[in-house]
Amino acid sequence: MLTRLSFTLAALGLSAVAHAQITVPIHSVASKDGDRSLGSVTITETPGGLQFTPALQGLPPGQRGFHVHMNGNCGEGPVNGKVAPAGAAGGHLDPHGSNAHKGPGNGGHLGDLPALEVDSSGSALKPVVAPQLKTLADVKGRALMIHAGGDNYADAPAPLGGGGGRIACGVIADVATK
Questions:
Q1: What is the pLDDT of residue 177?
Q2: Where does the record place the region Disordered (predicted)?
Q3: What does the alpha-carbon distance between residue 33 and residue 11 come to, in Å, rounded to a whole number?
Q4: How far, in Å, are 13, 28, 82, 145 from residue 85 at the CA level?
Q5: Could you tell me which residues are beta bridge partners of residue 41?
Q6: Is residue 2 part of a domain?
Q7: Maximum CA pair distance of the chain?
Q8: For the chain, how many structural domains are there in total?
Q9: In whole angstroms, what is the distance from residue 56 CA to residue 121 CA?
Q10: Whole-model pTM?
Q11: pLDDT (tens digit, 9 = 90+) per residue, 16-39?
Q12: Residues with Cβ within 8 Å of residue 99, at least 6 apart in sequence
């Protein structure tokens, strides 16, 4: 059966290409929730950039800021001079020093992802693509962060898109699968 399917795909000029991917477990970092699992996000290499496919539940409904942060650590740490949940993740991934929050593919932080859409039941399932991130090596060892607020992809009127506090985080491990 598999041979027939492969032959049919080849005859049509199509191929079944396996893309490298990593699945990142995501946990709540809000102190009232403890370290509660919210699900996972699968990151897949695609020709258009890395695709982030969430399978998350238990988030506040609405648009949420969604970013890759510098450090692969979701522990407490300093944010604007105060200890904050997931502060040890540092700021948005910005290896080129743009120091600008412009949204995905617009010349700002490499870690700027399209906003995460959470439905009325608290689930996030809609994939987003980050065209500026090309390979899993771009994000391995970093943190994947979900913020309390939305994201306007600008530094005004509020810095970093206005996403505010960090509510969920996951460390992007070094293990990839095909």
A1: 54
A2: 89-115
A3: 53
A4: 50, 9, 10, 11
A5: 24, 54
A6: no
A7: 62
A8: 1
A9: 11
A10: 0.85
A11: 556 899 999 999 997 666 679 999
A12: none
